[in-house]
Amino acid sequence: MSTAPNVITQRNGVLAEGAFTRLARGAELSCSILVVGGSTAAYTATLTALRLNLDVCLVQPQKVVGGQFTAQALPASDDGDLLQAKATFYTVDGEEFAISRTQRAFRDRQRELQPVGGKKVPNPGGGWVSPLATTTVVAATAMNEALLPYLRDGRLTLIPFAEPAEVLKETVNGRTKVQGVVCRDTQTGHPFTIKAKITVEATDLGDLLEVGDIPSYVGQEARHETGEAILPEDARPQCQQSITFDVVVEHTVRGKGVPIGKPDGFETEPWIGLKEFTSTFWTKAKPNQWQRWDFFSDFGIFRYRRLLRAQPHEKKVSPGDVAVLNWGTSSEPDRAFCCGNDYRPGRLVGVSREERAFHIQRARQRAQAYLHYLQTHGATDLKPRGDLTWTKDGIALEPYIREARRGMALTTIRHEDVAETFFPDQARARCFDDSVGIGQYHYLDLHGNDAKGHVSPRGKDVVALPFSLPLGSLVPKDTDGLVLSAKSLGTTHITNAAYRMHPMEWAIGEASGFLAVFAVWTGLAPRQLATEEKHTRKIQGFMARNGIPIFWFNDISHNDPDFEAIQVLAAAGIVRSENPKNLTFRPYAPVNRAVVATALVNALKLPTTLPDKPTFIDVVPGQHWAYMPIETLYAHGMIAGVGKDRFAPDAPITREQLSFLVKRAMPEVYDKAFARTPIDRQNLQRRELSRVLYEVLKGRLEI
């Protein structure tokens, strides 16, 4: 066995040989957490566990870490509009509320590594679709920097060029438990074994589920399988999202382009014929008026995902600029459907390895064909940048994957949990009370392959509201010792289309890393951690304490001193937005008596107690939303009216009045609950309510 020495460096985004461990035939290794896969989520799950002082073994197919940012050559992040939001008087910057502190630090490091005109800028690449883009090498360098300390101290064992071949399982108390994985070195064919307390499935195609025969879904499910009304009655596993081999190219000075060459079958094979490709982008300014954008124009295909700009101008394309070709489908005036390098024939999941290899090869051939088409149809001044893809021809090491085999999880995130149709006049999609992450992409971005029978949501059915990540979606129903991550979690064919984007996959990896760590720390199965409130709230609190948002608020930064309390109480459904039509929390706003009564009943989980007739004439059933919690608190002797028969539910409550309630409800947490909140007659603020009731919640759960 060769192992990594203490002195480890990187060059051009690739770790030095000393960073890697290569196991001999039949070797066996043990670790606390095993992460299988080369995805973005595999990276973030690994980094999360390492930062929490656990040892990790990461097994992946390439030397390059990072998945879609690196090996798949798409370091142009697919951000939702909330992540792009700029701070206002009432809200904070999108990168402070929509993503974790760790993800923001990664994005900032990318900006530092790729200045423009000697300055750090928000979007070094300056593409028109991706609000943050850098080169693949910059993304890989930033990712490697975070891993280097753990490679040097031996906590991270990084094994490249390997794939799962067999899942080691045993039966414990009548349930299947994963003990480890037998892997295969893809260069030598040698098998080796890694045993772990917890294994994380973070492959890009869900291969660990397949080789382990772990219950899963492939492609488009049947209606009875997910309960999604939009689906047909029959499952259609052949309906999957297309793959894309991205190509990194440079715009050269005139006459200095480097031809990639014509692939076999170009123009003769229909899937790489001339009609398949385009070099222009068209938009509709009016119903019958089209705007044409040539390849190198301000809003052309080249600047769509530009990664590097040679000049400070954001919109102008100049020689020396570098872009990644990742062009799907679009409409044009004379044809309704045309493509770029998306590969739509065939599928990679649920087929033999031979068929998979066949389609991967053809997808790579299509990428070559698209670049050849561009170079022979007006964009001659293009040069493949293999130095930025770690290949000879500028085509990515791996295809960009949009869909995987998905585990049957405790919670399945359905179309009805995400699409705007099901949440009229609301700012958020379903707020799972076991949320361990948030994400947002403005629509369900389905790039269907050419199989027949795809469901195609339209209108509000395809619009995705800001959504959350339930802890239960990371836990297989019938298998212990395993955590689902990347694109293998409990989404569906439809909802995966929003959860697969860069920022969300990063968040999924973080959440799966925290779950794996807690399972190791406690010795409890992920299933138990995800189904018992005490453990779920503890995980949520620890994640929020580490700067990870789990509920959508656009005015609470992950650096806010009350971030943990506000986030956990919101996820638990105790204190959320005053108005569900917006994402604001309004931390300094006053709180009325009805809101406090409702929140306290929910924090204490008091059983509903109702009188024969209303106690207060201004709080009656059918007329006031807080009737039941107010009567419940009154029955438990915790509140009183403001007069003979009135409660004044809409009157503001003071800090002192809340202190009386807490002292009656849970005196043992009183001092801790008010450690940072003055007990006076000033109106109580919403942030203070969350701060105080968080201690009440923890007291009830004994955490």
SSE blueprint:
Blueprint: E1 10-11, E2 14-15, E3 28-36, H1 40-51, E4 56-59, H2 94-97, H3 101-113, H4 136-152, E5 156-159, E6 162-172, E7 175-185, E8 191-201, H5 207-211, E9 216-217, H6 223-226, E10 243-244, E11 247-251, E12 281-286, E13 289-293, H7 301-304, E14 306-308, E15 322-325, E16 329-332, E17 335-339, E18 342-343, H8 353-375, E19 382-384, E20 406-407, E21 435-439, E22 467-470, E23 479-480, E24 482-484, H9 496-499, H10 502-522, H11 526-531, H12 533-545, H13 563-571, H14 593-604, H15 627-635, H16 655-665, H17 670-673, H18 686-701
Helix pairs in contact: 1-10, 3-4, 12-13, 13-18, 14-15, 14-18
